[in-house]
Amino acid sequence: MNMSKFKDFLERKDIRLSLRRYGIDAVGAMAQGLFCSLLIGTIINTIGTQFHIPFLTAPVATVAGVDYTLGGIASAMSGPAMAVAIGYALKTPPLVLFSMISVGFAANALGGAGGPLAVLFVAIIAAECGKAISKETKVDILVTPLVTICVGILLSWLIAPPLGRAAMWLGDLIKWATELQPFLMGIVVSVLVGMALTLPISSAAICAALGLTGLAGGAAVAGCCAQMIGFAVISFPENRWGGLVSQGIGTSMLQMGNIVKNPRVWIAPTLASAITGPIATCVFGLRMNGAPVSAGMGTCGLVGQIGVYTGWVNDVASGAKAAITGKDWLGLILISFVLPAIFSLVIHFGVKKLGWVKDGDLKLN
After folding, report:
1. Cα–Cα distance for residue pair 67/309, rounded to 1 Å
2. Distance of CA 27 to the CA centre of its chain
């Protein structure tokens, strides 16, 4: 097969080797899969425990001697959920998509704590291999799932463990550095994760893949909140209440079109994150010990705040934390909502005075 025919084959199979498809579409879908499994399961367990709801805290199934609650089952399906979401983003045929369930389970299980990163790589390769073989034989119903599952499980066996270890190592390095230098790393983590949240990539998936929790997780929450609340308040004159809600508890990614037109509109929320990050780490010692994906969600559906609260509950239960204090709640509220709004408004006022941003530059379509 010459190069021209190979390109035609890839085009016919809708296999596009692009950074956007793998680095944005697939990663974003993976975060949604995590949200619909691990994160939702964690929220269900927290609600059941805190409000003493028997239906949510009692085991509903026992598998291999392990009891699973309703939330536990949802969390246990994170690997398959991520892989299926990635397959969906890559527009795989049905037989390939359904086969991704097994692929995701294997990659996540063998990847350990760094399972999400392993799932991302393995699922992309398995999905594209499945697409390549799909409908190429008369026994498609046998060949397509066989190829997809075998490729996925073989890759999981070969690369999931080292990928998982690499992700854990990098995540541990960031967490260690944040503990060692909370001021400097508070700025770095807050700014970078916050910017990732606004860019068309997934900050949630990045935090999940790196297992970003603890003090670094708290800085990540601060950065994401600064972007979302920051854009929500500084654009209020143009977008009113609808914009306040859609950006404040939705996503700051809505401003990407305006950022491309005038990058200076990004100054206020980004500088605000550089301020709230070290306040979170140095003043309030804000730790996000819930599901790592929560660290990259900010105020989106209040998932970041739920993650912090879940971490508090877990730490109290394990004895790592004596109790949830008033300072904890004050820090969470200030870092998540109050300080990002104040700092962003003050900085944005200065930016407008300099003439870098004009009225209408933040208007959402």
Report:
1. 24
2. 9
In 3-state terms, what secondary structure has residue 61?
strand
Of 166, 199, 228, the residue at which a domain comes to its end is: 166
Rounded Cα–Cα distance for residues 10 and 348 (Å): 47
Same-domain status, 100 and 225 = no
Residue 216's nearest CA partner among 140, 299, 268, 292 is: 292
**Would you say how long the chain is, in residues?**
365
Q: Cα separation of 125 and 152, whole Å?
A: 8
Model pLDDT, residue 83: 97
Residue from 9, 29, 10, 6 nearest 18 by CA: 10
Query: DSSP 3-state assignment of 211?
Result: coil
Give the SS3 label for residue 80.
Answer: helix
**23: DSSP letter:** I
Mean pLDDT by runs of 10 across the 365 residues of the chain is: 80 87 88 86 84 89 89 92 96 96 96 88 96 93 96 96 91 95 97 91 85 95 97 95 91 89 96 97 96 90 91 92 95 97 97 94 90
In which residue are the tokens 């970003």 written?
212
**Residue 182 tokens, joined:** 């909370």
Rg of the chain, C-alpha, whole Å:
22
Q: Given 137, 166, 195, which residue is the final one in a domain?
A: 166
**Could you please report the per-residue DSSP string of 277-312?**
HHIIIIIS---B-S-GGGGGTTTGGGHHHHHHHHHH
Max intra-chain CA distance, the chain: 69
Residue 291's pLDDT is what? 87
For residue 272, give the nearest of 173, 341, 201 by alpha carbon.
341
**Tokens standing for residue 171:** 């995540």
Helix (H), strand (E) at residue 17: none
Residue 15, domain extent: 3-166
- Helix, strand, coil share of the chain (percent; to 5): 80, 0, 20
Closest alpha carbon to 198 in 170, 232, 238: 232
The count of structural domains within the chain is: 2
pLDDT for res 1: 55
Nearby residues of 124 by Cβ (< 8 Å), 6 or more positions away: 22, 26, 86, 90
